[in-house]
Amino acid sequence: MAVKERVGLVVSDKMQKTVVVAIENRAPHPKYGKIVVNTQRYKVHDEENQCKVGDRVRIQETRPLSKTKRWKITEVLNVKPA
Prior knowledge:
By secondary structure, the chain is mainly β. The chain has a single domain, classed as CATH 2.40.50.140. It is 0% helix and 60% strand. The chain has no helices and five strands. It is globular. The termini are far apart.
């Protein structure tokens, strides 16, 4: 089975070893054709607490780590300047 990977933006880093990553999906409306933006938020495991709000990260699906956490950070793509 293929490993699911996504690229998203860190929107919250208030928890220990966990960040919230928002992923935008842009798709045309089936009837009207307007581009509709859907945002999905994932709780992601951040072992070293390295991510800050505004960072662009790549995440990968993993085994369940808690009740709501099923993703982990594989790499930080862009770090937001402080």
